[in-house]
Amino acid sequence: MSLAAGHTGQDLSTEVLLCTYNGAPFVVEQLQSILSQTKRVTKISIYDDRSSDDTVARINDFVTQQPPDAQQLFALHVNPSNLGYALNFINAIEHASQDILFLCDQDDVWGPQKVESLLELFEDSAPDMVFSDGTIIDQSGQEVDRITVLHSYGFGKGKEDIAHFREHAFELLMKRNYVNGAAAAVRRVTAQSALPLPCDMPHDYWLAIWCSLHGGVVATPQVLYRYRQHRHNVIGIGSSSPMYEWLGIWRHPTVPRERELRIWRAVTTRIATLPCSHKIDAARRKLDWLTRVVSRDKSFSRVWEIAKSALNGNYRQYSGKDSFLRDLVSLLK
After folding, report:
1. The pLDDT value given to residue 158
2. How confident is the model at residue 4 (pLDDT cuts 50, 70, 90)?
3. First CA to last CA distance, the chain
4. Stretch 299-315: mean pLDDT, rounded?
């Protein structure tokens, strides 16, 4: 999919989809950063997932303090029941109405040029999804690491790396998710065509996969938001300590791998009828490989498959950096 006829980056309507749940300590700062953009958005739709704190009250107080033209941007919805993080975003996408959707977490802070810069990417490259880099901050808003969000994912900042992602997004996404929803904007038409979620998986990961099979996904090395890490994150960066990583692998070697297998079973089924046969074939090869190596079985055939995959490059091609260690540890426990 490409830019709709008659639309350019300047006249595409924009909608922020802010999903909240018990986000009272941070949500006002995020709302202020949205209103402080160099390019004002068309609409700010907030979907609260039955918060038990005063998130909704703080949002209402903030909105009523704004001038009338800003108040008109807001639409607040409180879900009848708790949907959970991913399904709340899916619900928000389903009810969205503007051309470009900016996914928004309650606890981050946007840089003032985020909307303008991401819209320029839509105009320049005509993809279905764009995303940026960001800095990592703690609960109080202080930077906690010199590396950026994309660097923590193993994503380089050079022009060659950015161009490589544009050309090979699906193949790279088969290994892991590089797209943080808080960093992303997506075309509404494409996002709604991706619904519903194939399974219990991160909504941003599924949208990135879907867009990579349609109009494409474009990254920018610009740092356009601050990604807050705190103890209530649903999904976060996690610790970079090797000891922490090793303990996680030792304690739970199989659960992440089994989830990856479950996700790719669902994704492969969902994309089976799309007109991109070589990418679908690649997904099937990954699924076939995962089915052979991810198991609680300790048979010789599985041991051989794991060893062979370490030598022939299947781990590097299809899964994240800790996948081999997880499979190896699962043979020992």
Report:
1. 67
2. very low
3. 47
4. 96
Contact call for residues 101 and 115 (beta carbons, < 8 A): no
Element holding 50 (H helix, E strand) = none
Dist. CA 199–CA 269, nearest whole Å: 11
Tell me how far apart the alpha carbons of residues 326 and 331 are, in angstroms, rounded to a whole number: 9
| Contact by Cβ (8 Å): 43, 14 | yes
Q: What is the pLDDT of residue 115?
A: 98
Tens-digit pLDDT profile for residues 85-112: 999 999 999 999 999 999 999 999 999 9
Confidence (pTM):
0.92
Contact 67, 39 (CB under 8 A): no
- Token pair, residue 195, equals 């619904």
Contacts of 308 (CB under 8 A, 6+ apart): 314
Which domains, ranges and CATH numbers included, belong to the chain?
14-228 (3.90.550.10), 242-332 (no CATH)
CB distance 178 to 166 below 8 Å: no
Q: Which residues fall within 8 angstroms of residue 283, CB to CB, at 6 or more apart?
A: 174, 264, 267, 268, 271
Task: Output the CA–CA distances (angstroms, integers) from residue 161 to 166, 219, 228, in the order listed.
Answer: 9, 9, 25
- Exposure string over 116-126, b if 16+ CB within 10 A, otherwise e: ebbbbbbeebe
The SS3 of residue 111 is: coil
* Residue 192, burial from CB neighbour count under 10 angstroms (0-12, 13-18, 19+): middle
Alpha-carbon span 217 to 224, nearest angstrom? 17
Q: Is the Cα torsion angle 87, 116, 149, 268 positive or negative in sign? A: positive
Q: Are 105 and 29 in contact (CB under 8 A)?
A: no
